[in-house]
Batch of 2 targets.
Target 1
Amino acid sequence: MSILDGYQEFVGGGTLDELRLLGRHLAGRRILTINSTAVGGGVAEILNRLVPLCRELGVDIRWDVIKGGEDFFGVTKRVHNALHGKQETFSRHDEDVFRETTQRNLAEMDLDADIVFIHDPQPAGLVEARRAGRGRWVWRCHIDLSAPQADVWQFLSGYVSRYDAAVFSAPQFAADLDIPQVMITPSIDPLSDKNRDLSESEINQVFERLQVPRDKPIITQVSRFDRLKDPVGVIAAFRMARQYNDCRLVLAGGGATDDPEGREVLAAVHEAANGDPDIHVLELPPTANIEINAIQRGSTLVLQKSLKEGFGLTVSEALWKAKPVIAGAVGGIPLQVTHRYSGILTHTVEGTAFWIKQLLNSPDYARRLGENGREHVRTNFLLTRHVRDYLLLFLFLDHRGEHIIHLG
Amino acid sequence: MADKTRPPVQPFRFCTSLDLTLLTNRRARDLAELLVHLHEVPGSVIYYHTHHFLVQHQYLSPEPPNDFAYWVTNVLQEDRLGEQLAAIDLIQFRTIRALRERLIAVIEGYLDERKQLRTAPEGEEFHFREAVSFVIPTTHVAHNLREFAGCMEQIGFGSLTYHFFDARLRLERGENDFSEWCAGLGEPELAKAIARLDPYTYTMDGLRKEVVRLVRRRLGERDA
């Protein structure tokens, strides 16, 4: 069976036919996609799935990665944080390190392609290889650029403005640029361990192993232990709701051993939980995909009470499992949850507690929110839609300025 | 049979419409700013914010209204105006221009009575987006009503969007493509029955099923 056929049961044959049509319209175009790592990180994860699917659609796509030393990746880590709005130092020396590594990669890489598709800041400088009238260049930004550090953005935008188009994940992440800006949201893969169907016994086994009894409604938040995910606020909301509804809380996130701030937040979470037997704080390794899947599937409600968020794909993960979701109205979450249709958007601890009670006491409405949410994800946040948008983007590059494009 | 006795008409070639979303870098924090942009944005922005729910929320029950109504109701919490915007009957409009004018008139009418503007919380501004639509011929072609019904059962929602919504409103063809073709086939009653449907009140799948039902009913009448 082809890779593409595996998605038919989720999106139907019509969607796959549309992808094949788009693939045919890209025949003969050579596409090169470049990021900074072949393994680890969300971009590599998505490219590992996207590239084979595109090839199966007949798209001639090649994936390459830039090389750089520790000093370069140290600089780009700070660039990444600064673009996210965290204050970082960025010196003339840092600029030189970035430029030198860019030059070395320009000398070593084969950048001959009809469309060059660059991900994130690390390889952004490769646009220096662009020659007038030859090839199209696209910069895909996976970062929230709504409040970037000015000097860092000024440096980077010198490169970005030379591209034919930029791609962002949410409207508020867009930048002040004169080139076309396209919105392409990220996606989840329904065939991955984190999202595939699990049997009831598989779910039970995970809960038993993690020592979380399934004797009463379970409210869950899956996210790393980070202040911006407000795990202490989740505990407060849970306690307010539990005065009226007996339930358990699961806070599941990655271990925080390498991250001093994460350790502090985890300590604050344990302090707030104060040994409460109904509050389960689970530190899971990054490979615990099936465990996360089972925890989401075994939950009655899923929370994502973020104060600031990149895209917040854990929301789509929960919705795909038809779970009613209560989430903060930040970042990309409002794209995934339409308030009172496919989930609940809240702004405060009190609001979150109110909706926890409402949904626990109105299981029919909660179920409908979850079902609507699953269908919303099916149409908008599965990998096949992501592939379709990238193929449309590649086609768009020859039709900038047009609103209705007729392909023969 | 009608389509055998009349002069041959062009077969119906189904197209599909797939949208890419562009960001306009325009945002509104209150109704006054919303109004300024509504006057200035391209028609493809108005189309996006009044039609993307059709495809993106096609299974939702109840179906949410257009983006303007949703934002005004849920973010600005101006319930009365939100209701007025949600009640704009899209099927009545034959051009984006007329739809834009109606949206503007409703908001201006509301502002005439109210001087105090509510401001969206930070991060919940209205971000204007734009639809770039790719129209692509599919492999589905119908030479007669029977083949037409068969194709209708197989086409993707992008084809329904194109022939039902885009044909009337964006391409200003006056009527949906299905009715036009049926009329050309010498099936004026069927053409009228399809034209009478308000496609905005159906899910995409519901709309498809209703068209198929009307066509199959007509085929049954002819066979009887």
Target 2
Amino acid sequence: MTGNSAMVAGENAARAFAHHEEGDGPPPREDVRAAAMRPVLTRDRWWWPTVGVLGAVVVLGIVAWAVQLADGLGVAGYSDNAFWAVYEADLVAFIGVSYGGAVVSAILRLTRADWRAPLTRIAEATALVTLPVGMLFIVPHLGSPQRIWELMWPPYWNLSSPILWDFFAVSTYLLATTVFFYLPLIPDTLIARGRLGVVADSRHARMCRLLYRVLGGRWAGTGPQRRTLRGATGLVAIMVIPMAVSVHSVLSFAFASSSRAGYAETIFPVYFVVAALYSGVALVLLTLAAARRLYHLEVFIKREHFVRLGFLMVALGAAYLYLTFTEYLVDGYSGTIGNAAWVRQVVIGRYWIPFWFYVVAAGVVPLVLMAIRRTRNVAGVVVASGLVVVAMWVKRLVIIIPPATEPLVRSSLTTGAWGTYHFTWVPISITLAATAAIPLLLLVLFRFVPILPMAEMEELEEMAERPAAGLVVADALLPTSVAAANGGVARDGDGNGAPASRGAVEGGQR
Amino acid sequence: MRRGSGTLRVRTSARALALAGVGLLATVGLLAGQSATAWAASARATGSQAHLTLVARPGPGHVTDVVLAASFSAAGTGQGARPGDRGVEVQFAVHVPEFSGSPLLTVGTATTNAAGVATLTYRPTWAGRQDFVASALGPDGTVLASSGTSITVTSAVRSDAPLTESARPDGVIGRAAAGTLLAILVCLWIVLVGVVVRVHLAGHQVGKEVARQP
């Protein structure tokens, strides 16, 4: 028996096992399963070099943090005249981008948007890895990490502190995000165990098997189990949306409940939530584009997905631009010393470059790219998303640094001059490390977890193919529908063809 | 011309002298008035014997209030020597130990009543020992007499504490809000963990049924 024939026999055995274990679920789709498990079963040549480079950047960030621990926050450019700066901006920006994935997935689930299926796993994974990275920024931001445990120890709780409520809110949201990622994964663990039968008994395969056994429990895919899972996922989806809104509202209270001009803004809770969703959707789009390219998912993740999410992104961007205008207009118009001073500094003063960069890069250009038909494609949306992610981080700096550097003590002993924050290599390295940690964690995660929600895609396909039961037929986004229309060749949104291999497997297994 | 001029000068000088005389009289009058007041003050101060006794006691109203009562008396024969003749301004101050040298911070002024007592109710902003100083001031601001006293404050209200009920957790509204939010938080955790458990229990039951099948 040759290696290939042994492999085919193994695959058939595994499929038979998997289908036997799946109970009364929808018919399997071989193309979906193959694409979803490909990152788990095979490791591309670029994987180790990419992980190595990203890991090196993360290590550089850890070294920078060690230097900061040894020499103090001064090496990060902090001073009495600039007491909050890049770490707080990182904290807000990274936690903010994590909301996009979970909320987009939750909204699409609750609205029963059947085109969501190929996106949800990647979106939820993005939220899952970004949130802990964002939470970690509290460590360099505090400067004295040995005190962090006091946040978790009730005798030390200071309920008057917004920081404590931040901790409560973000940790609760982390639990919700984890559960939201985990629940749809349960049926996939069974399918994945079956597919692992085709690979050699490597250490990686053994680890995956153990992981799937633990995560899947006694899942058998029966009707009652599916109903329970569907209800649970729906409940968590409902919970995730208000939690995301409340979490970033609470994060804004760290600023809004202060008495410093530029921070004490009643608009901040809404402002922060919209900013989080805006940058979060942009990050999801970037992640989708990267996964689509690296894992060859063009058949499943199409131009239409990017365009639809792109419209959602620019709608949020327009709302954020409007809120920015409102905030600056009101503060500048009121003419109070503190507010007028920081508005002037931001709009035409020393911070005009980052502020107007935000306006152009995150306010105007994405709108233009989505408005013009020629640029309303994957490349255009990716460019817009990249600009949004970067410019929204810059906007967080503009929110945080100017008010923190405004002099409040005016006496003969002080000059009354504004403080200055200077970037140093330390915060730059730590920020880059966090940025690199996101793709690094995603690469590692998808070495163990199917990148597409196989069970969910098959279930949605089954529902779409049951017009007699009165169900709404899904639009033509799912590849098999396109494949049928194109004579067995599924075409992605860019017109690239790929063979649809579903039928050969499906018939025999049912 | 010269005469004329001289005449003019003479006349001018006469007018100037007249005006100067009036001015002198006015000035003398003013000085006389002032000196009368000053005399009264000096009678208190230099009659030697101006005394001030400061007493601090807990206030009858708010539990954190301190009543500062300064009794002024002056032995002498001049006007103003008797307490009831005219109110004397008393300035009350507290030592601020947070700053180097523990400088005096004026907390208010009061005027003596007919009994010679000036009273000020003060709400301390920090707990602990507080050293007060009262100074009786003359009309020109000179210190006629001073006195000091100490009191240990066991409960104080921060200067930035709101007068009305706060939404912070140290107020009733705040305590209720914080308690409600913590309860919601606990419910969220229970629901999230419960959802996972429920899904697993569903699988567990199915697993048992499958195991029972031959």
